[in-house]
Write a structure and sequence with these properties.
The complex is a heterodimer of chains A (about 150) and B (about 90).
Chain A: H1 3-6, E1 7-13, H2 21-34, H3 40-52, E2 56-58, E3 63-65, E4 79-92, E5 100-110, H4 118-129, H5 131-139, H6 143-153
Parallel strand pairs in A: 1-4, 3-5
Antiparallel strand pairs in A: 2-3, 4-5
Helix pairs in contact in A: 2-3
Chain B: E1 2-8, H1 13-28, E2 33-39, E3 52-55, E4 67-69, H2 72-75, H3 79-91
Parallel strand pairs in B: 1-2, 1-3, 3-4
The chains are: A alpha/beta (about 150), B alpha/beta (about 90).
Pfam family, one (chain A): PTS_EIIA_2
Organism (chain A): Pectinatus brassicae
Protein name (chain A): PTS system galactitol-specific IIA component
Chain lengths: ~150, ~90
């Protein structure tokens, strides 16, 4: 399992303009459903989990979020869906649910078995920790470029 | 042998990343550790013999054990400070 194979170019988006975190999750959930990665129930559990255990992360230069939930047979295929936002939206932070962060890139995760994805998650967090790369990812406007920068970096 | 609880909110995704970083840190410093990876809600029932609690989500409750916020292992900000805090608990 590697990050590159999980990141399908068909699941990287730039045009959507969600008003809030729930809308962003629903947009990516619908795309996941179209590409047969998840059952609709998964989106519901992610929305629910985000309320109780938010996933916004404050990075050096911008905010990201990694909405996800336990798979519970609702994930059919492993994948990551990405929504890049010109106008950041507010998520609450994972570190402290009382705090907010303006999120520029949403990475929604659909992973079948939690424990098998350790190396993949570590790579994703390596990307988050690479400030230069994150800044580049925030300004690209095509799935090809986004995918290329990540592939080159890992 | 030091016993560390590493916990995150719901699923085990983020605590796995933090737990791996802590395991590597302890290996590097020759500190034998047992890491118990659980959910936040399970901390209360697993406190026996625990030397340190690390969570990726800030806990407001005092469990009466040394506590370090593990978020830096995910965000990459202030990692060194966090490593120092963990080592000072385990070596102190």
């Amino acid at each position: 399992m590697d990050l590159n194979s999980l990141l399908n170019k068909k699941l990287i988006f730039f045009e959507a303009k969600p008003k809030n975190d729930v809308e962003a999750i629903k947009i990516l959930g619908d795309k996941f459903i179209e590409e047969k990665y998840i059952k609709p129930e998964y989106t519901k559990t992610v929305v629910e989990r985000e309320k109780n255990f938010p996933t916004g992360i404050v990075l050096e230069s911008l905010g990201v979020a990694i909405p996800h939930a336990s798979p519970e047979n609702n994930v059919l295929k492993d994948g990551i869906a990405v929504l890049s936002l010109k106008e950041p939206i507010i998520f609450h932070t994972m570190e402290d649910a009382d705090n907010e962060v303006a999120v520029s890139i949403v990475f929604m995760l659909a992973l079948k078995e939690n424990n098998e994805h350790l190396s993949m998650l570590q790579k994703l967090f390596k990307i988050f920790q690479n400030n230069e790369l994150i800044k580049k990812l925030a300004i690209v406007s095509s799935a090809e470029e986004f995918h290329k920068y990540i592939t080159e970096a890992i | 042998m030091k016993k560390i609880i590493v916990a995150c909110g719901g699923a085990v995704a983020t605590s796995t990343v933090a737990a791996t970083a802590i395991k590597e840190l302890c290996q590097k410093n020759n500190i034998p550790v047992e890491i118990l990876q659980i959910r936040m809600t399970e901390i209360e029932g697993n406190l026996e013999g625990v030397d340190l609690i690390v969570t990726t989500m800030r806990i407001k409750k005092d469990f009466g054990k040394p506590y370090v916020n593990g978020m830096p292992f995910l965000s990459g900000l202030n990692v060194e400070k966090t490593e120092q805090a963990i080592l000072s608990v385990l070596q102190g």
